[in-house]
């Protein structure tokens, strides 16, 4: 593989001249044509990523993700990558495996690597996050969580949960289990629960119990049988589609038919939920669009433009076969 030194030797110019050409510096037209000819003949391709790291202002955006085995993360990254490529930016992805300490380390590491900005797909915002982001002096956009001191792209969790809650009530369900996650996660653990509670409060005679699990399908599979046995709800509203998939499996393992014996809903709108039998009723979030919005916002901040502190992405209630319509008069 040819190097800058090889190109310089073949073209009969100094290595610094080739470097200046690659970085858009001033050289004569004659020298420029000579270097271009050699590059074409040798098939030399400059390492734009390395060039960017050496430059005073890079075109690299650091992306910090909590996990790589997530539909939401994957779709968000696709949207980010699409938009950044259109703007001639590159992305550098750092995975934290749901480790908050690694998340903080990633922010500092990306800053040392002179990225132009950072997009953080956060599961939780702590005071430590705020302290670090204040000190690094590069733009940061948070996706999926919000904080009054940070720029954020937020899924409309509260309204989505409220609308899904209203739909559940419209189908006649009055004994409902809500299976959520830790309230350390403000978006999924708090906002979705609060939106759902608001809908429940608008109807009298509705019995709701709130339970908690993790984001893992396997843990929902363990949690749900005790909910079914001890509470016997007509409906389980799950805070994510993965939790709902675990709930569906648990119901089948306990001899129940969905939705005849038990109705189940989720949040997310993962593609697999359409292929399941029965298809899962869910609040769909547009993760790819949110990724493009985040990329657009970070590019604007990098270039000194003003943006809104908080931007909401859209959602849609997708009605499928996992919810049964009950006759309220017979309850």
From TrEMBL:
Residues 3-55 form the HTH lacI-type domain. Keywords: DNA-binding, Transcription, Transcription regulation. CDD domains: HTH_LacI, PBP1_TreR-like. The keyword DNA-binding applies. SUPFAM superfamilies: lambda repressor-like DNA-binding domains (SSF47413), Periplasmic binding protein-like I (SSF53822). GO terms for molecular function: DNA-binding transcription factor activity; transcription cis-regulatory region binding. It holds the Pfam family LacI. Residues 3-45 form the HTH cro/C1-type domain. InterPro entries: Cro/C1-type_HTH, HTH_LacI, LacI/GalR-like_sensor, Lambda_DNA-bd_dom_sf, Peripla_BP_I. PANTHER family: LACI-RELATED TRANSCRIPTIONAL REPRESSOR, TRANSCRIPTION REGULATOR, MEMBER OF GALR FAMILY. This is LacI family transcriptional regulator. It comes from Anaerobacillus alkalilacustris.
């Amino acid at each position: 593989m040819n190097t800058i030194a090889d190109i310089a030797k073949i073209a009969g110019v100094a290595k610094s001249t080739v470097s200046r050409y690659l970085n858009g510096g001033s050289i004569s037209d004659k020298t420029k044509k000579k270097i271009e000819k050699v590059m074409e003949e040798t098939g030399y391709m400059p390492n734009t990523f390395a060039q960017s790291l050496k430059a005073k202002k890079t075109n690299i955006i650091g992306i910090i993700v909590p996990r790589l085995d997530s539909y939401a993360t994957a779709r968000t990254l696709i949207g980010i990558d699409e938009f950044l490529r259109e703007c001639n930016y590159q992305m550098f992805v750092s995975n934290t495996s749901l480790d908050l300490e690694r998340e903080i380390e990633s922010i500092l590491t990306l800053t040392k690597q002179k990225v132009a900005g950072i997009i953080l797909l956060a599961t939780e915002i702590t005071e430590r996050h705020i302290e670090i982001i204040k000190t690094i002096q590069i733009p940061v956009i948070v996706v999926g969580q919000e904080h009054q001191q940070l720029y954020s792209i937020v899924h409309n969790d509260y309204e989505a949960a409220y609308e899904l809650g209203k739909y559940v009530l419209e189908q006649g369900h009055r004994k409902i289990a809500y299976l959520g996650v830790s309230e350390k996660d403000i978006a999924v653990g708090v906002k979705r629960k609060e939106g759902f509670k608001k809908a429940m409060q608008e109807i009298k005679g509705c019995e709701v119990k709130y339970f908690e699990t993790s984001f893992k399908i396997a843990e929902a599979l363990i949690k749900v049988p005790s909910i079914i046995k001890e509470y016997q709800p007509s409906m389980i509203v799950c805070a994510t589609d993965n939790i709902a998939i675990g709930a569906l499996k648990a119901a089948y393992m306990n001899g129940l038919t969905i939705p005849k014996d038990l109705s189940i809903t989720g949040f997310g709108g993962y593609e697999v939920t359409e292929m399941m039998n029965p298809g899962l009723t869910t609040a769909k979030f547009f993760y790819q669009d949110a990724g493009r919005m985040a990329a657009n916002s970070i590019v604007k901040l990098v270039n000194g433009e003003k943006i809104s502190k908080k931007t909401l992405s859209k959602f849609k209630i997708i009605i499928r076969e996992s919810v049964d319509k009950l006759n309220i008069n017979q309850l």
